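Protein modeling request. Please complete all fields; requests missing the sequence field cannot be processed.
Requester role: graduate student
Desired output: 3D structure, token encoding
Chains: 1
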Amino acid sequence: MTPLALYIHWPFCLSICPYCDFNRYLATSGNWTVQGALQAYLKELDTWLEILGTRSLISIFIGGGTPSLMDPVLLKELLKGISERFSCSLDSIEVTMEANPSSAEGKKLNTFRQAGINRLSIGVQSFDDQILSFLGRKHCAQEAIDVIKMAKTIFPEISFDLIYGHKHHNIDSWKTELNQALALAGHHVSLYQLTIEPQTPFFHLHKQGKTLLLTEDAMADLYLLTDEILKAQGWQSYEISNYTYSQKPCRHNMAYWQYEDYLGLGPGAHSRLCFFAEGQLGRYAIANEKHPESWMQEVNLKGKGIQEIERIEPEQQAQEKLLMGLRLEKGLGLHRLKQDESVIPKYTLSSLFLEKVCHLKESSLIEPLADDLVLSLEGKLRLDTILRYLFKDSILEDSK
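Delivered output (400 residues):
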């Protein structure tokens, strides 16, 4: 059975953070009932399972939005319905829920665990109250600390996110915050550089000339410091922004990076799936209707809340595999592309492409390994540049 990772999007938040471009709406703007939401999520899943056939479920990830705002009854019944459809025990797979410290309090955490959540991902973002205010977060540092400590007593696995690289950080302040985080952490942390996303409040401030980010050189220094501190304390990087202490990466994340199939349910959810359509097996990119009410109406009418579906052409598949695979610490083996020689364009395995790989190795941006593309530390800092270089001349451009 082809493995499948399942993503469920909960679109509601108590407030909108100025850096966030995820599909999110104020909780007061939703008109969802427990029964209505449950019916829609499971109906969309049922429709897709008819198309995909029998699959083995490897993970569930409930993201948002702020999923910890979800009614515990809805969560319990939704997870029960999923486990029944895949004939699997929730304890046998990774089941993650995102939570914010301002909404994840003791009673709800216990309820989430009882519903089947076995991995909690906490949106801490900072342990500094000034930075939390800058990022538009509604919790304080002490709330985050308390929730982390509580979650460690309830869930088998926890993780939390931090954001760095903004104007309030320098080497010393980030080092202090990072060491505080590692003293509290379980076996997994996600450390993201702040980016300015289009049409967010930060985007408009940035366009007005407001300084929000550090310089590229300062960002690079913080990334190198991060990698140095974590590895010195026994942490392993498995992806550019993700570290594990127990050699147990997030299984759901790995499904993305390893280009496996994942199905997204809910408003604005995305999927990458292989299935038969019009008599041919293809890989498809699917995006759902973004607005919660529009998505629910589509599901109730048609069984799926799709806004857009596109067949992923071979050249794009090759680029996506490289984009995802190069983010991994273990990189991407060329054999993975060669396995797909029948569908991957010749360019990806052409002498020109391989010459570029050799040049990147000579430049110490890719490790000098025989059949694997593994970024060096310097290469990780220049990932976007490397990807542009590798695909500067594509088969489509050659044909013009």
